[in-house]
Task: structure prediction
Amino acid sequence: MPYDAVKLADWQISEAAEEHLKSVWDLGKEMGLERDEILPYGRIGKLDFMKIMSRLGNKPDGKYIDVTAITPTPLGEGKTTTTMGLVEGLGKRKKNVGGVIRQPSGGPTMNIKGSAAGGGNAQAIPLTEFSMGLTGDINDIMNAHNLAMVAMNARMQHEANYTDEQLSKRGLKRLDMDPKNVEMGWVIDFCAQGLRNIMMGIGGKMDGFLMSSRFGIAVSSELMAILSIVRDLADLRDRLGKITVAYDRKGNPVTTSDLEVAGAMCAWMRNTINPTLLQTVEGQPVMVHAGPFANIAVGQSSIIADRIGLNLYD
Result:
């Protein structure tokens, strides 16, 4: 039977291609990476951004092709499929080429959108790791984001329970946040419609501050948007400290720095600045980093992964 008459699902193509999956070490060697610049993680691995840039940062940039704003067809050819096809096509022409794409979100993946890994012969593999959490970046962002929410609600609880003098003994000043003017909500990486609007703090005086709140999907977090544009770990720490969590009763912003939680948030996200290394079904390198929704951020992967790619590929 001719090949073009064979109808295979994306996962079947991925499964067949993974029989020839290059190890992260072999792929890194082809890319010109040093062994200590790769952080192995099962069949995939992260790239140590700071080490790579300190070694290659002065190398002339390669050429950059931006694929964006493509509405998928009924067959699924969108941004990722087009990007993977370009990488494979240029690789077939013996060009030193690589791709940079975003990580998919668990919510749409488990609902109707699929893996966001491309389609047909233009896919990123291994598909299971790509679709199911990868190296934990979204989980780290969830923890960092929700830590700010815990700190905010705990602060509101303490201010409701204690006088200014009692707060001062605990090293705290009254922030006087307005529970009806809160910017942040909680995040979870599922499409959990029943949690979009909630009441929290129900119970006694030690069970949190009673207020309305909400859940959003993890990749809509401002922290994910920040990850996509930071230059390095210091830049990440600086930007995390400027997030507005709420406003006080006079309308002044209250930030994560005011809650003294930005450093701990950055500690949770310390590993997220390193892109993850995957490959196309034909073996070309693909970096996966960040996962911002286009409507809340810049709709790209990350500046960090772009910088690595410009220094590694022609």
